[in-house]
């Protein structure tokens, strides 16, 4: 599987131990796992996508660029990229995690993808890693634009509730959990004091958007 993965990347690791570390989930109980490489890869992808969007959308505001980046740099997006590489089949994990559908878990796939990017960065540097990452990104998201990548569900929900109910949705942080470099937020949205939805995401803004989307679906507006 590692050979096939490297063929998909069009790159063969000189240090195979680095690749193995990038694909080792913490449940595998080795002296090493992919969490540190995941941390590095997250930072690399943030810069890769940020630079790409900066030059591609030269007339867009900082706000729009931030929304575009948030739509691409997140667990769901990275899980899609991991699936394109069939990364789930390559991850080393415990039997218990595998039996719990670990090879298809978005969180594990996303973490493995970030760790893989971190490993590539250590081996070949930023420019070559960027080339590999952008090629993959454009294969999975052939139409990268503001319409296809993000929808502002939060604004739409507010417009509807203000027009129909004369109220503004209230977003409440239920809890924050996880390591500092991979913090997760659980957010609830209330309308007229009643909870309509909850969502968990890697940022408060993303969780709020997911809450708003669920609320809009319940209101029959999507």
TrEMBL record:
Gene3D superfamilies: 3.30.160.20, Ribonuclease III domain. Residues 152-221 form the DRBM domain. GO terms for biological process: mRNA processing; regulation of gene expression; rRNA processing; tRNA processing. Its main location: cytoplasm. The active site is at 42, 114. InterPro entries: dsRBD_dom, RNase_III, RNase_III_dom, RNase_III_sf. It is found in: Cytoplasm. Residues 2-125 form the RNase III domain. Its EC number is 3.1.26.3. It catalyses: Endonucleolytic cleavage to 5'-phosphomonoester. Its cofactor is Mg(2+). It holds the Pfam family dsrm. One of its GO terms (cellular component) is cytoplasm. GO terms for molecular function: double-stranded RNA binding; identical protein binding; metal ion binding; ribonuclease III activity; rRNA binding. Mg(2+) binds at residues 38, 111, 114. Keywords: Cytoplasm, Endonuclease, Hydrolase, Magnesium, Metal-binding, mRNA processing, Nuclease, RNA-binding, rRNA processing, rRNA-binding, tRNA processing. HAMAP family: RNase_III (MF_00104). NCBIfam families: RNaseIII. Digests double-stranded RNA. Involved in the processing of primary rRNA transcript to yield the immediate precursors to the large and small rRNAs (23S and 16S). Processes some mRNAs, and tRNAs when they are encoded in the rRNA operon. Processes pre-crRNA and tracrRNA of type II CRISPR loci if present in the organism. Belongs to the ribonuclease III family. Homodimer. This is Ribonuclease 3. It comes from Campylobacter volucris.
């Amino acid at each position: 599987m590692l050979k096939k993965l490297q063929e998909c990347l069009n790159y063969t690791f000189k240090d195979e131990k680095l690749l193995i570390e990038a694909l080792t989930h913490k449940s595998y109980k080795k002296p090493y796992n992919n969490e540190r490489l995941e941390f590095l890869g997250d930072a690399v992808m943030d810069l890769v996508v940020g630079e790409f969007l900066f030059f591609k959308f030269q007339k867009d505001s900082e706000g729009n660029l931030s929304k575009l980046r948030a739509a691409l740099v997140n667990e769901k997006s990275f899980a899609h990229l991991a699936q394109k590489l069939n990364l789930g089949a390559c991850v080393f994990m415990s039997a218990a995690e595998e039996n719990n559908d670990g090879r298809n878990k978005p969180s594990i796939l996303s973490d493995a993808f970030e760790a893989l990017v971190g490993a590539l960065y250590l081996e070949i540097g930023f420019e070559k890693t960027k080339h590999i990452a952008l090629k993959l990104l454009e294969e999975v998201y052939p139409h990268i634009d503001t319409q296809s990548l993000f929808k502002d569900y939060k604004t739409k929900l507010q417009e509807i509730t203000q027009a129909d109910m004369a109220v503004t949705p209230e977003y409440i942080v239920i809890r924050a959990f996880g390591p500092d470099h991979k913090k997760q937020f659980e957010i609830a949205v209330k309308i007229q004091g009643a909870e309509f939805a909850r969502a968990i995401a890697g940022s408060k803004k993303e969780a709020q958007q997911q809450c708003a989307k669920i609320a809009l679906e319940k209101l029959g507006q999507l």
